[in-house]
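user: can you give me the structure for this one chain? tokens are fine.
assistant: on it. calling the predictor now.
[tool input]
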Amino acid sequence: MRSLRIYAFILAMMASSTYASDDDAEKINHLLEYVRRSACVFIRNGNEYTPEDAEKHLRMKYKRGKKRVTNAEAFINLIATKSSFSGKSYLIRCGEQAPQPTADWLRERLSGYPQHNS
């Protein structure tokens, strides 16, 4: 019985160290929702996508790579920075502004998130 509890404890520790905390999962969800609600064009592999399509794509990548994402910054670095297929950086264009790296745009949003510095 004791070995079963130790095994359960080890599994719990492993799970907690490989997934984002609830706070970071909330931040990631906030970033995904921000993408979806933006009026920006998402540029992936040279093609333009709507905010809704961008959010769906990033959410799909997050779901597949969730084990590697330990916090919101890791989400940006590992999921939302570039195409895993081509290696090309994701870009975002808002209004008349020049396209910028999506990672930079998301970091700006994350820095303004109320609980980012807590």
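assistant: here you go. The chain is about 55% helix and 10% strand. The chain has one domain: 20-111.
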